[in-house]
Protein backbone atom coordinates (compact mmCIF):
# COMPACT_ATOMS: atom_id res chain seq x y z
CA UNK A 1 0.00 0.00 0.00
CA UNK A 2 1.01 3.62 -0.59
CA UNK A 3 0.61 5.47 2.71
CA UNK A 4 0.72 9.04 4.02
CA UNK A 5 1.50 9.58 7.72
CA UNK A 6 0.63 12.79 9.60
CA UNK A 7 1.80 13.08 13.21
CA UNK A 8 3.75 15.87 14.89
CA UNK A 9 5.40 13.44 17.34
CA UNK A 10 8.65 12.69 15.52
CA UNK A 11 9.39 9.43 17.32
CA UNK A 12 5.95 7.99 16.61
CA UNK A 13 6.02 9.21 13.02
CA UNK A 14 9.42 7.66 12.38
CA UNK A 15 8.36 4.49 14.17
CA UNK A 16 5.32 4.17 11.92
CA UNK A 17 7.46 4.75 8.83
CA UNK A 18 9.82 1.98 9.88
CA UNK A 19 7.03 -0.42 10.83
CA UNK A 20 5.16 0.07 7.57
CA UNK A 21 8.28 -0.05 5.41
CA UNK A 22 9.42 -3.28 7.04
CA UNK A 23 5.93 -4.68 6.45
CA UNK A 24 6.30 -4.13 2.71
CA UNK A 25 4.40 -0.86 2.34
CA UNK A 26 5.52 2.42 0.75
CA UNK A 27 5.31 5.59 2.83
CA UNK A 28 4.97 8.31 0.19
CA UNK A 29 4.91 11.18 2.71
CA UNK A 30 5.45 11.64 6.46
CA UNK A 31 4.40 15.08 7.70
CA UNK A 32 3.86 16.92 10.96
CA UNK A 33 0.84 19.20 10.51
CA UNK A 34 -2.62 19.31 8.99
CA UNK A 35 -1.84 21.56 6.03
CA UNK A 36 0.98 19.27 4.96
CA UNK A 37 -1.37 16.29 5.26
CA UNK A 38 -3.91 17.85 2.89
CA UNK A 39 -1.15 18.72 0.40
CA UNK A 40 0.28 15.19 0.57
CA UNK A 41 -3.11 13.53 0.01
CA UNK A 42 -3.86 15.76 -2.97
CA UNK A 43 -0.41 15.18 -4.47
CA UNK A 44 0.05 11.45 -3.84
CA UNK A 45 -3.52 10.06 -3.73
CA UNK A 46 -2.43 7.38 -1.23
CA UNK A 47 -4.18 4.07 -0.60
CA UNK A 48 -4.65 5.17 3.01
CA UNK A 49 -3.53 7.97 5.34
CA UNK A 50 -2.71 7.65 9.06
CA UNK A 51 -3.55 10.86 10.91
CA UNK A 52 -3.06 12.03 14.50
CA UNK A 53 -6.11 13.93 15.80
CA UNK A 54 -4.13 16.58 17.68
CA UNK A 55 -1.49 18.50 15.76
CA UNK A 56 -0.03 22.03 15.67
CA UNK A 57 -0.71 24.83 16.24
CA UNK A 58 -3.30 24.34 19.01
CA UNK A 59 -3.03 20.55 19.44
CA UNK A 60 -6.81 20.16 19.63
CA UNK A 61 -8.48 18.76 16.52
CA UNK A 62 -6.34 20.05 13.65
CA UNK A 63 -5.61 16.54 12.42
CA UNK A 64 -9.28 15.64 12.30
CA UNK A 65 -10.21 18.84 10.47
CA UNK A 66 -7.39 18.25 8.00
CA UNK A 67 -8.63 14.69 7.42
CA UNK A 68 -12.13 15.98 6.70
CA UNK A 69 -10.70 18.57 4.30
CA UNK A 70 -8.58 15.92 2.58
CA UNK A 71 -11.69 13.81 2.02
CA UNK A 72 -13.49 16.84 0.62
CA UNK A 73 -10.72 17.45 -1.91
CA UNK A 74 -10.08 13.77 -2.65
CA UNK A 75 -13.45 12.07 -2.11
CA UNK A 76 -13.40 8.58 -0.61
CA UNK A 77 -9.71 8.76 0.28
CA UNK A 78 -9.27 6.24 3.15
CA UNK A 79 -8.29 7.76 6.51
CA UNK A 80 -7.22 6.02 9.73
CA UNK A 81 -7.23 8.46 12.65
CA UNK A 82 -5.12 7.80 15.75
CA UNK A 83 -5.93 9.43 19.08
CA UNK A 84 -4.41 9.35 22.56
CA UNK A 85 -7.85 9.45 24.16
CA UNK A 86 -11.38 8.38 23.27
CA UNK A 87 -13.25 11.30 21.68
CA UNK A 88 -16.60 9.97 20.50
CA UNK A 89 -17.50 13.24 18.77
CA UNK A 90 -14.35 12.97 16.64
CA UNK A 91 -15.35 9.50 15.47
CA UNK A 92 -18.85 10.75 14.71
CA UNK A 93 -17.54 13.72 12.69
CA UNK A 94 -15.19 11.52 10.71
CA UNK A 95 -17.82 8.91 9.91
CA UNK A 96 -20.15 11.65 8.72
CA UNK A 97 -17.72 12.22 5.82
CA UNK A 98 -18.64 8.86 4.30
CA UNK A 99 -21.57 10.59 2.67
CA UNK A 100 -23.30 7.64 1.05
CA UNK A 101 -22.48 4.57 -0.99
CA UNK A 102 -18.81 4.02 -1.69
CA UNK A 103 -17.93 6.60 0.94
CA UNK A 104 -14.42 5.29 1.41
CA UNK A 105 -12.62 3.68 4.31
CA UNK A 106 -12.64 5.30 7.74
CA UNK A 107 -10.94 4.21 10.96
CA UNK A 108 -10.58 5.58 14.50
CA UNK A 109 -8.13 3.84 16.84
CA UNK A 110 -6.38 4.65 20.08
CA UNK A 111 -2.61 5.01 19.67
CA UNK A 112 -2.08 2.14 22.09
CA UNK A 113 -3.39 -0.22 19.39
CA UNK A 114 -0.29 0.39 17.27
CA UNK A 115 1.66 -1.80 19.70
CA UNK A 116 -0.46 -4.79 18.62
CA UNK A 117 1.24 -4.77 15.23
CA UNK A 118 -0.72 -7.51 13.47
CA UNK A 119 -4.08 -6.07 14.58
CA UNK A 120 -3.01 -2.56 13.60
CA UNK A 121 -1.90 -3.66 10.14
CA UNK A 122 -5.13 -5.60 9.71
CA UNK A 123 -7.15 -2.50 10.64
CA UNK A 124 -5.11 -0.45 8.17
CA UNK A 125 -5.81 -2.94 5.38
CA UNK A 126 -9.53 -2.92 6.16
CA UNK A 127 -9.68 0.88 6.02
CA UNK A 128 -7.69 0.94 2.76
CA UNK A 129 -10.18 -1.58 1.38
CA UNK A 130 -13.11 0.74 2.11
CA UNK A 131 -14.10 -0.64 5.51
CA UNK A 132 -15.00 1.11 8.74
CA UNK A 133 -12.91 0.35 11.83
CA UNK A 134 -13.68 1.69 15.31
CA UNK A 135 -11.65 1.14 18.45
CA UNK A 136 -13.47 -1.11 20.96
CA UNK A 137 -13.09 1.65 23.58
CA UNK A 138 -15.01 4.02 21.30
CA UNK A 139 -17.70 1.41 20.77
CA UNK A 140 -18.00 0.95 24.54
CA UNK A 141 -18.46 4.67 25.16
CA UNK A 142 -21.04 4.86 22.40
CA UNK A 143 -23.12 2.27 24.23
CA UNK A 144 -22.74 4.27 27.45
CA UNK A 145 -24.24 7.42 25.92
CA UNK A 146 -27.32 5.78 24.38
CA UNK A 147 -30.47 7.83 24.76
CA UNK A 148 -33.75 6.40 26.00
CA UNK A 149 -35.50 7.24 22.73
CA UNK A 150 -32.79 5.93 20.44
CA UNK A 151 -33.78 3.94 17.32
CA UNK A 152 -31.64 1.03 18.48
CA UNK A 153 -34.16 0.14 21.18
CA UNK A 154 -35.93 -2.27 18.80
CA UNK A 155 -32.79 -4.37 18.35
CA UNK A 156 -32.34 -7.60 20.28
CA UNK A 157 -29.20 -8.03 22.42
CA UNK A 158 -27.71 -10.28 19.72
CA UNK A 159 -28.47 -7.74 16.99
CA UNK A 160 -26.76 -5.07 19.09
CA UNK A 161 -23.70 -7.32 19.36
CA UNK A 162 -23.68 -7.76 15.60
CA UNK A 163 -24.04 -4.01 15.03
CA UNK A 164 -21.20 -3.27 17.47
CA UNK A 165 -18.94 -5.64 15.52
CA UNK A 166 -20.06 -4.04 12.25
CA UNK A 167 -18.96 -0.70 13.73
CA UNK A 168 -15.50 -2.20 14.27
CA UNK A 169 -15.35 -2.86 10.52
CA UNK A 170 -15.76 -6.63 10.65
CA UNK A 171 -17.20 -8.59 7.75
CA UNK A 172 -20.13 -10.98 8.22
CA UNK A 173 -17.72 -13.92 8.22
CA UNK A 174 -15.53 -12.30 10.89
CA UNK A 175 -18.61 -11.53 13.00
CA UNK A 176 -19.72 -15.15 12.70
CA UNK A 177 -16.33 -16.32 13.97
CA UNK A 178 -16.40 -13.86 16.87
CA UNK A 179 -19.90 -14.91 17.97
CA UNK A 180 -19.38 -18.60 17.13
CA UNK A 181 -22.43 -18.75 14.86
CA UNK A 182 -22.96 -19.50 11.18
CA UNK A 183 -22.54 -16.95 8.39
CA UNK A 184 -26.23 -17.42 7.62
CA UNK A 185 -27.20 -16.47 11.17
CA UNK A 186 -25.18 -13.26 10.92
CA UNK A 187 -26.71 -12.42 7.53
CA UNK A 188 -30.16 -12.82 9.09
CA UNK A 189 -29.25 -10.51 11.99
CA UNK A 190 -27.86 -7.92 9.56
CA UNK A 191 -31.08 -8.00 7.50
CA UNK A 192 -33.10 -7.56 10.70
CA UNK A 193 -30.93 -4.59 11.71
CA UNK A 194 -31.47 -2.91 8.34
CA UNK A 195 -35.22 -3.50 8.61
CA UNK A 196 -35.58 -2.29 12.21
CA UNK A 197 -33.53 0.84 11.51
CA UNK A 198 -35.73 1.46 8.42
CA UNK A 199 -32.72 1.94 6.17
CA UNK A 200 -33.57 2.65 2.52
CA UNK A 201 -32.88 -0.03 -0.10
CA UNK A 202 -29.38 0.48 -1.51
CA UNK A 203 -26.08 -1.33 -1.80
CA UNK A 204 -25.25 -3.38 1.30
CA UNK A 205 -22.06 -1.34 1.87
CA UNK A 206 -24.09 1.89 1.97
CA UNK A 207 -26.62 0.37 4.37
CA UNK A 208 -23.82 -0.86 6.63
CA UNK A 209 -22.41 2.68 6.80
CA UNK A 210 -25.86 4.09 7.60
CA UNK A 211 -26.36 1.46 10.30
CA UNK A 212 -23.01 2.36 11.90
CA UNK A 213 -23.86 6.08 11.76
CA UNK A 214 -27.17 5.40 13.49
CA UNK A 215 -25.31 3.40 16.12
CA UNK A 216 -22.82 6.24 16.73
CA UNK A 217 -25.45 8.93 17.02
CA UNK A 218 -27.54 7.01 19.52
From TrEMBL:
GO terms for molecular function: DNA binding. Residues 148-213 form the HTH luxR-type domain. Gene3D superfamilies: 3.40.50.2300. Pfam families: GerE, Response_reg. It comes from the Bacteria. Residues 2-126 form the Response regulatory domain. Keywords: DNA-binding, Phosphoprotein, Transcription, Transcription regulation. The keyword Transcription applies. The modification 4-aspartylphosphate is found at residue 52. GO terms for biological process: phosphorelay signal transduction system; regulation of DNA-templated transcription. InterPro entries: CheY-like_superfamily, NreC/VraR/RcsB-like_REC, Sig_transdc_resp-reg_C-effctor, Sig_transdc_resp-reg_receiver, Tscrpt_reg_LuxR_C, WalR-like. This is LuxR family two component transcriptional regulator. It comes from Micromonospora violae.
Amino acid sequence: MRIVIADDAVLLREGLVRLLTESGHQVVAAVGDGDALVEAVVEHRPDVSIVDVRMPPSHTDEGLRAAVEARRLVPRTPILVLSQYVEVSYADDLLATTGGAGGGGIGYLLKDRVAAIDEFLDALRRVAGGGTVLDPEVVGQLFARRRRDDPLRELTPREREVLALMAEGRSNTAIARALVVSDGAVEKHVRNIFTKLTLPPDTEQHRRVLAVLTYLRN
